[in-house]
Amino acid sequence: MILEVDNIHTYYGESHALQGVSLTLQEGETVCLLGRNGAGKSTTLRSIVGLTPPRSGRVVFRGKDIAGQPAYKIARQGVGLVPEDRRIFPGLSVRENLEVARYQRPGEAPSWSIERIFDEYPMLAELADQDGATLSGGQQQMLAVARSLMSEPRLLLLDEPNEGLAPVIVKQIGALIDALSATTTILFTDQSVHFALKHARRAYILEKGMIVHEASSQELLADTDTQQRYLSV
Ligand code: ATP
């Protein structure tokens, strides 16, 4: 198992956002975390990476409890987050956005480089010298994912990668997730079932800060009752 989130409780001030969330990921799996607006999807990802540390519970990554560690230390151990708002650095070119994210774990050969990113995503190579802030939403999403690859993630967390993107771009993001799935463990969030189940093998559903359902994509696709109860369909 690469990740075990065990009964985490996360607060914003007095507000009890996650009320005992547990989930697991096997190495190499692609899993989706589903739920409506405000269900706690972002907070779950932020709790895993240490941006909103859980007040109790465990986050076990590769056998070690990382809950409570500072976010930069968690990132260096190989947990990458692509946040919902993408956070492309304005005033930096596409190439510079990638360069600043470069991190090499001591004693390990890097698997990603700018050259490899440009080889695999020629669209980014074409935009290499352009200010990141001038990119379209879909281009920014590709750049945000590519940027997180530069820090050599062993586990990639994608927060609503399709948010606000046109259907044709959503297809490209789906293809990107499929391609990365071959080599990386991925947990991504989404509000609707169709994209999620096409690209993930398994899904958890969050509602009001609790996991209310877990199923394989095939099961959930057939289960319209559960979809209607907990998801935007
Ligand atoms: P969305 O699709 O809107 O991002 P989500 O499922 O990711 O939804 P979260 O953003 O994790 O949900 O929010 C979970 C709960 O925590 C919601 O009730 C939300 O209002 C609350 N919340 C989120 N961020 C904050 C914050 N910075 N301060 C206070 N409450 C917050």
Automatic annotation (TrEMBL):
Signal peptide segment: none
Domain ABC transporter: 3-233
Pfam families given in the database record: ABC_tran
UniProt entry tagged with the keyword Manganese: no
Keywords assigned by UniProt, alphabetized: Amino-acid transport, ATP-binding, Cell membrane, Membrane, Nucleotide-binding, Transport
Xref: Gene3D superfamilies: P-loop containing nucleotide triphosphate hydrolases
SUPFAM superfamilies hit by this protein: P-loop containing nucleoside triphosphate hydrolases (SSF52540)
Transmembrane segments: none
Gene Ontology BP annotations: L-amino acid transport
GO molecular function, one term: branched-chain amino acid transmembrane transporter activity
The family this protein is said to belong to: Belongs to the ABC transporter superfamily.
Protein name from the UniProt record: ABC transporter ATP-binding protein
Organism: Pollutimonas harenae
